[in-house]
Amino acid sequence: MIRLVVVDDQGMVRAGFRSLLEAEPDLEVVGEAADGEQALEVVARLRPDVTLMDIRMPVLDGLAATRALVADEVPTRVLVLTTFDLDEYVFEALRAGASGFILKDAPAEELAAAVRVVAAGDSLLAPGVTRRVIDAFVRRAAPATRVLDPAMARLTPREVEVLGLLSRGLANADIAARLFVSEATIKTHVSSVLAKLGLRDRVQAVIYAYENHVVVPGGAEPF
């Protein structure tokens, strides 16, 4: 059973999400919060597998709440709820440690699937859309203003290649097929990349790759 907390400042929205999620046999909403400050208390106390987090809320917004949960190492994965797919707050939430995002008007089956993906710690949620958000906001900073992370030097050439491919939305199986190796080998490479760079998950790996020029905003797909 996947345990969830729903965080949104609108009671009707919370009730709607609860109804949709609890219709699924493997999902259980164990708590709710109306702002980021309440979310910190509820999530720390209930330790849900996934926290559905609205961004624009009073008292403490979802971005600050996400940062606090990640900094406190609370064992939950944050799935950001947003009305707009190209939202600067979404990008910053991903950068802060959220595991993905979903539009509030997404179909019920898409919401349930997103929760399961995030709960499993699996690959990047909705990679095409997530890449578009990252692409839109990373390109705002002029390349000359970015200082590349010296930790990149720790990666082997193959690890850099794997990082570039996962950052373009390829799943482990797709990367394995492209590089003619086993999926288990790719999983090992991904784990090594995250460990060497001190990254939380694949979402942060994508952002890191863009900001360190492993991939270029607006670049062609590798398909």
UniProtKB/TrEMBL annotation:
UniProt keyword annotation of Transcription present: yes
Record's keyword annotation contains Transcription: yes
Start and end residues of each Response regulatory domain: 3-119
Cited InterPro entries: CheY-like_superfamily, NreC/VraR/RcsB-like_REC, Sig_transdc_resp-reg_C-effctor, Sig_transdc_resp-reg_receiver, Tscrpt_reg_LuxR_C, WalR-like
4-aspartylphosphate, modified sites: D54
Start and end residues of each HTH luxR-type domain: 148-213
GO biological process: phosphorelay signal transduction system; regulation of DNA-templated transcription
Gene3D superfamilies (alphabetical): 3.40.50.2300
MF terms in GO: DNA binding
Keywords associated with the record: DNA-binding, Phosphoprotein, Transcription, Transcription regulation
Name the record gives this protein: Response regulator transcription factor
Source organism of this protein record: Nocardioides piscis
